[in-house]
Design goal:
With 104 residues, this protein is mainly α. It has one domain. The longest helix is centred in the middle third of the chain and has 55 residues. The relative contact order is 0.07.
């Protein structure tokens, strides 16, 4: 995107006209709004990624804890299958990507 000064480079005297000054001010406001929107979008995606990583870590820790409990008390606790965990995590990531438009 070209800057305002690049656009009026050969006709700088036009920048002093009242309608052009209004247009320049309006353009700067729009540029600020676009920048804010990009920052919010970036923050939202970062928040989603952090949340996803926390969910994945929690699932892995729960699997490890379940398997330790199974070793101690095999009659009470069922051993967690790693294949099921990986399949569920894959499905979770695909679903989050689809619903949050993460671009993975």
């Amino acid at each position: 995107m070209r800057s305002i000064y690049e656009i009026f480079k050969s006709n700088e005297h036009l920048m002093d006209l009242s309608p052009v000054e209004e247009l320049i001010e309006y353009t700067r406001e729009l540029e600020g709004m676009v920048l804010e929107n990009k920052m919010e979008e970036s923050y939202d995606k970062e928040h989603i990624y952090i949340s996803m990583l926390q969910d994945i870590l929690t699932s892995c820790l729960e699997m490890e804890e379940n398997n330790l409990l199974h070793e101690r008390w095999p009659d009470i606790y069922k051993k967690t299958d790693a294949e099921d965990l990986v399949k569920n995590l894959k499905d979770y990531i695909i679903d989050m990507n689809r619903t949050s438009n993460l671009g993975l």
